[in-house]
Design goal:
The complex is a heterotrimer of chains A (about 325), B (about 725) and C (about 325).
Chain A lengths: L1 H10 L24 H11 L1 H19 L35 H37 L1 H16 L2 H8 L8 H10 L3 H15 L2 H9 L3 H37 L11 H9 L7 H28 L9
Helix pairs in contact in A: 2-12, 3-4, 3-12, 4-5, 4-7, 4-8, 4-10, 4-11, 4-12, 5-8, 8-10, 9-10, 10-11, 10-12, 11-12
Chain B lengths: L3 H7 L10 E12 L2 E14 L4 E5 L6 H9 L7 E8 L2 E2 L5 H7 L4 E4 L13 H12 L5 H14 L5 H5 L8 H13 L5 E5 L7 H18 L2 E6 L2 H7 L2 E6 L2 E7 H6 L4 H9 L49 E2 L6 H8 L3 E2 L4 H6 L4 H4 L21 E14 L5 E16 L4 E5 L6 H10 L5 E6 L2 E2 L5 H8 L2 E4 L13 H11 L4 H14 L16 H13 L5 E5 L7 H18 L2 E6 L2 H7 L2 E6 L2 E7 H6 L4 H9 L5 H6 L33 H9 L5 E3 L2 E3 L8 H15 L2
Parallel strand pairs in B: 3-8, 3-9, 6-7, 7-8, 15-20, 15-21, 18-19, 19-20
Antiparallel strand pairs in B: 1-2, 1-4, 4-5, 9-10, 10-12, 11-12, 13-14, 13-16, 16-17, 21-22, 22-24, 23-24
Helix pairs in contact in B: 4-5, 4-7, 5-7, 7-8, 17-18, 17-19, 18-19, 19-20
Chain C lengths: L1 H29 L4 H4 L7 H11 L7 H15 L11 H36 L4 H14 L3 H19 L18 H39 L2 H9 L3 H38 L5 H10 L3 H29 L6
Helix pairs in contact in C: 1-12, 5-6, 5-8, 5-10, 6-8, 7-8, 7-10, 8-10, 9-10, 10-12, 11-12
The chains are: A mainly alpha (about 325), B alpha/beta (about 725), C mainly alpha (about 325).
Chain lengths: ~325, ~725, ~325
């Protein structure tokens, strides 16, 4: 890409404009250019996708928190007069065959799914960052062992592993489920972090720090992690999506959240049997779930675009 | 000084008839998402005649590559191109992609900079050359195309072309890939060959070979050549005409002789004066060309060079000068005819051309340093002494069950020493082991063999605390100033980082950082800014400031200016020289640019395949190189002076650097040695069996058995050239 | 090159073997096969339960490593994976069920890959144009939808379609219509119709992933210097992209194939259950619910072998596509 580099070298935003008048040798005389963080933020806020996703998520979060307070029915109570009803003014999403209000249930399920996603996604990223950067930076035996473990965990699909492990957290609270989900969702990202770290390790500024005698943990914290931070933020965002998907999948097939807890997965499981005859029982929770995940994916994608310096340019 | 006769005499091929290529008022603009447009090329006009060799010179961002991609119609679809390009009677900008495809590769062909990425990795070289043939000759059979491809590979000097045609690009060396690119370019006997920095990624000895092949290709096809480069030395020896570009504009255009002898534009003058010349380097200071090109998104009013121009006057900041003939008062008709000869875009070119403003007035040479080089005291303990250093890498294959399939002898018994206040220049082609050598010094671990002594202390026997103390005395400046600075830290933190290791308090650190910024010529107020806010030259100054933070005794400079634009290099070299005198530093200066080594070094060590083959005082080695490799290296390095360049004796090396895994008996330079092939069999036997060691020849140590016969190669190469020239 | 692939195969083989053993151990520790007998009424005697457990080789009183060793010996010597709690042979179950699963997985992943790669190339070439945006948002929508939801939504859609058509256009419950008799052709057509919806769902998942990845690889390739070289030789833009671009952009896809395989396997397991196929997915999930250690071990072995073959295949593809790794 010599062409773009060439034009960017003189034309990119960061380069300051020399002021008219006699030039003081080699001194920038301009307003302070944008820092990288501000630049990313600006690019982010210029994309419509980001705003669509962010507003949708904000609305969904507010709805999940405030919705139940502003609604007369709760998730467990039964309305014996209205059983198996379609959406009405009284029961917005309808009721199931024992008269429980689906709107109230959906909001409770949404809360649970979001909380699990928000914990498990970033937790998985954290594990990936630690394992990946240590393996990549240290290299040698440590690297080989860690990579081998990652490959071993990748042999079986993590959904199957979670299903096999599900008896272990059967009687335990959903917190353990969350931890298990995070524990099986970091491997691919760890490989990415590792390869990034390996290339950073050979970059001159890391070498410079090493030759100065800067200790390893300081190098990781000061030079390596900040330089892959954008990658980690994106992964954490998309990790939220992956974790919610894992949770709903497990719960749907009866290996995740169990009664009396409610999540979107359990609701969907209940709704499936009647999906053809009483589609609202399935469609409403499914719609809410898809909308939530779609909004988060949009933010993740917009973040990725904002971080990538070549995005937005036609590269042909 | 420019009289009519000499101009006409200088125009090498007769520029009669209609030009082959006529570019008129060409502009290229790249729209940017959410930002101002980038005006990469702004209204340039030039002509290329049949068989002419035009050199387009400019720094990065000058628009030289963009303008030639516009000729080929290869710009991204987002680019806006205006003006006119006429080639052989057709207007290229009016043609669509299909029509242009018929011209590309048949009438105009192009050679790109990086030959590795320019060849498709999954097809064989032969197939890719045959493709060029088949695309434009549907009657040609596959077999015939393959046969012709082999023939072409032979023409460009690739040994065993039948076998090589079946090889993939990754199996070729850089020089061979570029030869293959040239073969592809000449496949259909084009009328115009555009070469975009064809030798920038290559070593000097390979560069010399490639330029020869390009000349040969030009002779064979009779094509005109447009050579785009940043290196004045490369065009000096080959181009008939030179066009200089700056900030998207053509600022000077004339015959090579004219432009080098009597440039009319201050930028050209500055460029010519700032480039170190191997013939004169080391005797005087370089002329710095300060500042940097303006941003192409927000060009100032007036002349784009005004901000850097020492002779800018008010009008320069108001109106942009046009490209005009200067120094002559002639009738319009004659002036128009001459416009093709030597034009420059400067309001004061008349004064320059008439001699009122001399080049020394425009860019005066800085005063020599007050302190003269202190003579090294031979008895003192050297700052760095390396003896018999060895670094071999096992070459393994496979992952889990890896096995060793060879040894890379990266460094194979290297010895040198550096006295306080002295500079050692370490030169050699890529892969010769110079980088490994300095990394071994900086790692400060026990070497595989040999000893590294810093200030007389052997690094092998030191504890952690002592090593940390020693690290204070040795610092490094890297080649790429962008990669060497952490983009996430403000430069104050970057410069202060070495101090954190030694427990310096934050307050003291801040003070020291301000001091250092001042020392390297940057504003101390800028400590809280981030690296991306600085230009390449400024970033390298930041890297130098960081290296100086701990008051080191020795600074290792790993190609410190090779990533910088030519006009910036002189300023950084001058700064390094100043600092050395001021702070009594020692430098270990690694470079492939011989002119710069000659400029800054006191002693030079020439490396080849992990060994030092020649070692001695810089002036002596450059004036009388004793080792055939040093001779070849020096003669391959281009000199930015067409007169010298055209009359030089050259020793061209054959082939590429052998693989460092090869176990070679006797002298490891034998396979490429120009002298070896001329020796009698009995003398050859010595080279084949005995590994030469460094022996003193006068002030210089040389590792060659036949030093006394080294003029043989030079006279032989001269004879060879004359043979070639004779019909 | 053969040696290279053989070495990779051995590497994957070891990984798969260890993963299967670990899965056996984990399943043995996590599952309690005795519990279902305690819940029975009348409760069988302790002796009976122990006999049953010993017969299956899953008695928790025997150290787990010893059970693992017996399981391995049994597998290597007799080619047996023990019995299910229902008393049938695990190997027989796998043999009879795997065909259903493999058919869905194979057809779905091949079509998904072809569609995804095509869409990815198309999207990259037409970057930021309308069609690219449609593909992009479409794939994000698929990513945001759990596999089983895609399945159920397709079922709802098919029901509506059948209702509108007034006849059973699309059958989607089970692998074939029970009790249908007719020519070989009729039976095959019936199976194909039943396979339609789950295949569509699997293709959607596969294509979404492949298209995103192929698009980003292709975008990198678009700006590659060798595309410019090919055009400088006289190839038109589109011809250069196809002849030189797509060919190179396929190389990293072979690695992505191995990565995405896990997702597809989980996806097809979910779809089998949603569409009531009696395949390996149902077998695996039932095994967990019934605390059937042998069945769980058998199905993990089956999955590990699948992964082993897909990984090796991806290495073969990689070596075939990229001359740089061949030597």
């Amino acid at each position: 890409m010599s062409l773009l580099e060439e034009t960017n070298a003189a034309g990119g935003t960061p380069v300051a404009t020399p002021a008219p008048g006699p030039a003081t040798p080699d001194v920038i005389r301009s307003a302070k250019p944008l820092s990288r963080g501000r630049l990313i933020w600006r690019r982010l806020t210029q994309t419509s996708r980001f705003w669509a996703g962010a507003i949708a998520i904000a609305v969904i979060l507010l709805w999940a928190i405030l919705g139940p307070l502003l609604y007369p029915y709760d998730a467990t109570g039964r309305d014996p007069l209205n059983m198996g009803l379609g959406p009405t003014q009284l029961h917005w999403f309808g009721t199931n065959n024992i008269g429980q209000d689906l709107y109230a249930q959906t909001l409770v399920g949404l809360q649970k799914s979001i909380v699990i996603g928000l914990i498990a996604g970033p937790l998985g990223t954290l594990i990936a960052a630690v394992v990946g950067s240590v393996a990549g930076y240290l290299g040698g035996v440590v690297d080989r062992v860690l990579v081998w473990c990652i490959n071993l965990l990748l042999v079986l699909p993590s959904f199957i592993l979670l299903v096999i492990l599900s008896p272990l957290f059967k009687g335990l609270s959903w917190v353990f489920l969350t931890i298990f989900i995070a524990g099986f969702s970091w491997m691919i990202m760890a490989q990415v972090v590792r390869s990034q770290t390996r290339s950073l390790r050979d970059r001159d500024f890391v070498k410079a720090a090493r030759y100065m005698g800067v200790p390893m943990p300081t190098i990781l914290g000061r030079h390596i992690i900040p330089n892959i931070a954008s990658l980690l933020i994106i992964d954490a965002t998309l990790g939220v999506v992956a974790s919610i998907l894992a949770e709903t999948g497990l719960s749907y097939f009866g290996f995740g959240i169990r009664a009396p807890d409610v999540s979107l997965g359990t609701l969907l499981a209940e709704g499936t049997s009647a999906a053809v005859t009483r589609p609202w029982l399935f469609v409403f929770p499914a719609g809410v779930l898809i909308l939530t995940l779609f909004a988060v994916s949009l933010i993740g994608d917009a973040l990725r675009d904002a971080v990538d310096p070549t995005s937005g340019v036609n590269r042909d | 000084m420019t009289d009519l006769v000499s101009i006409q005499g200088a125009s090498t091929p007769a520029r009669a008839g209609a030009p082959l290529l006529e570019v008129t008022d060409l502009s290229v603009t790249f729209p940017q998402r959410g930002g101002p447009d980038v005006n990469a090329v702004r209204g340039i006009s030039y002509q290329v005649h049949k068989g002419e060799f035009l050199g387009i010179v400019g720094e990065s961002g000058s628009g030289k590559s963009v303008s030639s991609l516009a000729l080929m119609g290869l710009l991204p679809s987002s680019a806006r191109v205006t003006g006119s390009i006429r080639f052989g009677g057709r207007s290229l900008l009016d043609l669509n992609d299909r029509q242009l495809s018929g011209i590309r590769g048949r009438e105009i062909s192009m050679i790109f900079q990086d030959p590795l990425s320019a060849l498709t990795p999954v097809y064989t070289v032969g197939d890719q050359i045959a493709e060029a043939l088949l695309l434009h000759d549907s009657a040609l059979g596959k077999r015939a195309a393959q046969a012709r491809a082999v023939e072409l590979l032979k023409v460009v000097g690739i040994p065993a072309p039948e076998r090589r045609a079946k090889a993939f690009p990754h199996e070729f060396s850089g020089g061979m890939r570029q030869r293959a690119m040239i073969a592809m370019a000449i496949a259909n006997d084009p009328q115009l060959i555009i070469a975009d920095e064809p030798t920038t990624a290559l070593d000097v000895t390979i560069q010399a070979q490639i330029l020869e092949v390009l000349e040969k290709a030009k002779e064979l096809t009779g094509a005109a050549v447009v050579l785009i480069t940043h290196d004045l030395g490369v065009v000096a020896g080959h181009a008939d005409r030179i066009a200089v570009m700056y900030a998207g504009k053509l600022v000077e255009n004339g015959t090579t002789t004219e432009v080098f002898a009597a440039p009319h534009m201050p930028y050209t003058i500055g460029l010519l004066r700032s480039v170190p010349n191997m013939q004169t380097a080391g005797t005087e200071r370089l002329v710095p060309l300060e500042g940097r090109p303006p941003s192409l998104t927000a060009l100032p009013r007036g002349c784009p060079f005004a901000a850097r121009c020492p002779i800018a006057i008010d009008v320069c900041r108001e109106t942009e000068p046009g490209l005009l003939v200067h120094g002559l008062t002639l009738s319009d008709e004659l002036a128009a005819e001459l416009a093709a000869e030597h034009v420059a875009a400067c309001h004061r070119s008349d004064e320059i051309a008439s001699g009122l403003l001399t080049r020394a007035d425009v860019f005066p040479r800085p005063a020599p340093l007050a302190v003269q080089h202190s003579e090294a005291r031979a008895d003192a303990e050297p700052v760095l002494r390396v003896t018999g250093l060895v670094r071999h890498f096992p070459l393994t294959k496979g992952g889990v069950f890896s096995r060793q399939i060879g040894t890379v002898r990266a460094v194979d018994g290297v010895s040198f020493s550096i006295q306080a206040g002295q500079t050692l220049g370490l030169v050699g082609e890529s892969g010769c082991g110079k980088s490994t050598t300095i990394l071994e010094v900086l790692e400060m671990t026990r070497p595989q063999a040999g000893r590294i002594l810093i200030d007389g202390k052997d690094v092998a026997g030191l504890g952690r605390a002592e090593l940390l103390r020693l690290r204070r005395d040795v610092q490094i400046v890297f080649q790429d100033p962008m990669a060497a600075l952490d983009p996430r830290l403000p430069i104050g933190d970057i410069i202060g980082e070495p101090l954190t290791v030694h427990g310096v308090k934050p307050d003291a650190r801040q003070g020291r950082v301000a001091e250092l910024l001042d020392l390297v010529g940057l504003d101390p107020q800028m400590a809280d800014r981030y690296p991306h806010e600085f230009s390449g030259g400024q970033r390298q100054r930041i890297g130098i400031a960081r290296a100086l933070a701990t008051n080191p005794r020795l600074v290792v400079l790993d190609e410190p200016v090779s990533a910088l634009d030519v006009s910036i290099q002189a300023g950084v070299i001058n700064l390094l020289e100043d600092l050395k005198e001021k702070l009594n530093l020692s430098y270990l200066f690694v470079a492939h640019d011989l002119a710069i080594v000659r400029q800054i070094a006191d002693t030079v060590a020439v490396m080849y395949l992990g060994r030092i083959v020649e070692y001695g005082p810089v002036a002596e080695v450059f004036a009388r190189p004793r080792h055939p490799y040093t001779q070849a290296l020096i003669s391959a390095a281009p000199i930015p002076d067409p007169v010298i360049e055209r009359s030089r004796k050259r020793v061209l090396l054959e082939g590429d650097l052998p693989s460092p895994t090869e176990q070679i008996d006797g002298c490891n330079f034998r396979s490429r040695c120009p002298l070896y092939s001329l020796l009698a069999d009995t003398d050859k036997a010595l080279c084949e069996t005995v590994d030469p060691v460094l022996r003193a020849h006068g002030q210089v140590e040389t590792a060659c058995h036949h030093v006394e016969r080294n003029d043989l190669a030079i006279s032989a190469s001269l004879a060879g050239r004359e043979d070639e020239l004779a019909p | 090159m053969a040696f290279y692939i053989f070495r990779r195969f051995v590497n994957y083989f070891i990984l798969s073997a260890i993963a299967t053993c670990l899965a056996y151990v984990v399943a043995s520790l996590a599952l309690d096969p005795a519990s279902k007998y305690y819940g029975r009424n009348p409760q069988p005697s302790q002796q009976t339960i122990t006999n049953i457990l010993n017969g299956l080789g899953v008695n928790p009183d025997v150290p787990v490593l010893e059970r693992l060793w017996n399981w391995i010996v049994n597998l290597v010597v007799h080619g047996s994976l023990g019995n299910t709690v229902g008393g049938t042979s695990v190997v027989d179950q796998i043999v009879s069920r795997s065909g259903v699963s493999l058919r869905l997985l194979l057809i779905g992943s091949v079509i998904g890959a072809i569609v995804g790669v095509t869409l990815g190339v198309w999207g990259a070439v037409r970057q930021y144009k309308f069609s690219d945006q449609v593909v992009t948002y479409g794939s994000y929508l698929v990513f945001a939808t759990p596999t089983f939801v895609i399945g159920v939504l397709l079922m709802i859609g098919a029901t509506a379609l059948n209702g509108a058509a007034g006849m059973q256009l699309i059958n989607f419950t089970g692998e074939y219509s029970a009790g249908l008799s007719g020519s070989w052709w009729d039976l095959t057509a019936d199976r194909a119709v039943h396979l339609l919806l789950p295949t569509v769902a699997l293709v959607l998942i596969g294509a979404a992933g492949y298209s995103r990845y192929q698009r980003s690889v292709m975008l990198d390739v678009l700006s590659a210097d060798y595309i410019r070289t090919a055009r400088a030789k006289g190839r038109s833009r589109n011809a250069a992209l196809v002849r030189h671009g797509v060919r190179v952009a396929l190389i990293p896809m072979s690695t992505f194939f191995a990565y995405s395989f896990g997702t597809l396997v989980s996806g097809s397991i979910m779809l089998e259950i949603v569409f009531s196929f009696h395949g390996m997915g149902e077998f695996t999930l039932n095994a967990i619910t019934q605390s059937d250690i042998n069945a769980v071990a058998g199905s993990t072995l089956f999955l590990a072998v699948l992964v082993l073959f897909s990984s090796t295949l991806s290495e073969v593809l990689y070596a075939a596509l990229d001359p740089r790794v061949r030597n």
